[in-house]
Design goal:
Chain A is α+β, with helices and mostly antiparallel strands. Chain A has two helices and six strands. By secondary structure, chain B is an alpha+beta fold. In chain B, 25% of the residues lie in helices and 38% in strands. The chains are: A alpha+beta (127), B alpha+beta (133).
């Protein structure tokens, strides 16, 4: 179970992730996108998924039983190669429904002080 | 971006999903969960077969949106993962995406997106906001 005391807390990464042209091209290639000047709209998840798992590894959340319930992106500007992005993850809410834990996590990607993309993930931890 | 009107239906596009695409997406996204690649593992946890990453389905819907006005125009994008997309070995699973214009406001349009596999919706409440560049 998620430690309920952590709801509302924000965990900030210690290191930035450098966005490479290769990583944008690889993501774009999967969906058939030929414009690689900017990252595809859901590219941010390739940073926030693993970063949020690392940031929340001691939260009590059982990542091995997590199913992705929903996902939202707010894109303030497109991610581009050369961006150096810092991830911070906030546990916005947690509740139990039909025995499953429903945890909502927001992850923000900042370039310096600029907020580039916010992502919201609802994680369902299967009973 | 050309002119859009509320209620306008946008043409559907078909995106084939196969096992090779799942491996490519796993490598590009860093999501190496074995339920998306390993048939024996997927079945051991009660799934009918390997399933696609929900985020791959969403990424393909993202491509559909990008084709309207370019990736840089996408401001908001959200979806629920309502049904798993099963990807059996050796065949393409056909993801069919379409959209309807739900709002036209100053410089931006909102879309309701439909994503179907075998006539079943696989994304729920899928919405996007895109701006004219």
């Amino acid at each position: 179970m998620l430690n309920a005391e952590l709801v509302g807390r924000t965990f900030s990464g210690a290191e930035t992730t450098l966005v490479t042209q290769e990583s944008i091209a690889a993501f774009a290639a999967v969906v058939g996108e030929t414009n690689v000047e900017v990252a595809p709209p859901t590219y941010a998840i390739s940073i926030t998924l693993n970063q949020s798992q690392a940031l929340l590894q001691d939260s009590g959340l059982d990542w091995t039983r997590v199913v992705h319930g929903d996902q939202r992106f707010e894109i303030f500007r497109p991610i581009v190669a050369g961006d150096s992005l810092l991830c911070s993850s906030t546990i916005e809410s947690a509740r139990v429904m039909a025995g499953n834990e429903i945890v909502s996590v927001r992850s923000d990607l900042h370039s310096g002080s600029e907020l580039v993309v916010s992502t919201w993930s609802t994680l369902v931890v299967r009973a | 971006m050309s002119t859009y009107t509320v209620g306008q239906e946008l043409a559907q596009k078909i995106y084939p999903i196969n096992r090779a695409l799942l491996v490519a997406y796993a490598d590009a996204s860093g999501d190496q969960n074995p339920i998306h690649q390993d048939e024996a593992f997927a079945k051991s946890v009660g799934l009918p077969d390997v399933i696609a990453h929900g985020m791959l389905t969403m990424a393909l819907a993202g491509k559909y949106i990008s084709d309207i006005a370019g990736s840089a125009a996408v401001k908001e994008f959200s979806a629920r993962f309502t049904k798993p997309v099963v990807v059996p070995a050796g065949v393409d699973t056909q993801l069919v995406i379409s959209a309807k214009v739900s709002a036209v406001e100053a410089g931006q349009i909102k879309l309701d997106i439909t994503a179907m596999v075998d006539d079943v919706k696989v994304l729920g409440m899928a919405k996007a906001t895109i701006v004219a560049s």
